Amino acid sequence: MLLCLAFRFVDNSLYPYRFRQNWAMTHLRLDSLLAGVLVGYLYYFRNAYFKRLFNKRKYILLPLAILLPLFTLFIHDASQSFFTMTIGFSLLYFSFSLLLTYFLLNENINARLDRIFGKVVVNTVAVVGDSS
Fold this sequence. Notes:
The chain is 80% helix and 0% strand. The protein has seven helices and no strands.
């Protein structure tokens, strides 16, 4: 993941106006896929360790997952933002990985979501998510 970030720094420094290249090339974006794979690996193969890690830090995970992507509110044009095209991508996948972890390991997440959105909405979205 750090290697992908380093590649993004180099590529965005050398070719700052090649938006499509900097946005879509695999070696510059593979770290977000790896983050999802890491969450899946920890969940399925190191579940006890993952739960212990989660339970130690669960009160900071959700606020952090919400705060990290807030920088996007202040970026007018992402294609012209060196920060967004480098560290910003890392912050986004890290934030969504934390959010996924929170939803996977929080035992009473369904009850909370049912209270907020209603059981019908939550079950409908859950069926779609289960199929994907």
